[in-house]
Specification:
7 helices, flat, mainly alpha, single chain
């Protein structure tokens, strides 16, 4: 007798959690649409400031620009890993120690880009009495901290791997 998940996967094509996640996402979208209202998503006076336009542009920008860029960077890292593995005896892969801080830096750049490029500086100053000048420096410090923490974690992992004897050295003794 087959279990429910295996029968469900055969009929649906994926795990039941996939359907649950999709249903929850569509329910959240419907809730936001009903709460906010479709009229709030479109600005008829200046169409380019509409949420719907920015959402569509973000999807297009991600799929046509960002995805190919970070896929290319990832392929470069994987190729560098293969090359490094062929030339060295290190047992610790570097790839995730570059991926994680790079993704963190990219995400914070996207989130804080208006502040970093000082978009709306007069409105920001009028509302807070502050300038947006520190945004770039703070983002650079955060990026350096992410890569620094990753480098320290990588160094610790390499040191621990070097301290452990390999299977070949254990069998030789």
């Amino acid at each position: 007798m087959s279990s429910f998940p295996s029968v469900f996967r055969e009929v649906y094509g994926s795990h039941p959690f996939h359907l649950l996640t999709l249903t929850a996402g569509f329910a959240l979208f419907t809730y936001v649409l009903v709460t906010v209202g479709p009229a709030q998503l479109w600005n008829p006076t200046t169409w380019w400031q509409s949420i719907a336009v920015w959402f569509a542009a973000a999807i297009v920008a991600h799929d046509l620009v960002l995805f190919p860029v970070y896929s290319l960077v990832d392929r470069f890292l994987v190729a560098a890993r293969r090359h490094r593995r062929a030339t060295t005896t290190s047992r610790v892969p570097l790839i995730n120690y570059v991926r994680v801080p790079l993704m963190g830096a990219a995400l914070t750049l996207v989130v804080f880009l208006p502040g970093i490029i000082e978009q709306g500086a007069s409105n920001f100053h009028a509302a807070t009495g502050l300038t947006q000048a520190p945004y770039l420096g703070r983002w650079l410090l955060l990026t350096a901290a992410l890569f620094g923490a990753s480098a320290v974690a990588y160094g610790v992992r390499v040191a621990r791997a070097a301290a452990k004897p390999t299977a070949a050295s254990r069998s030789a003794s």
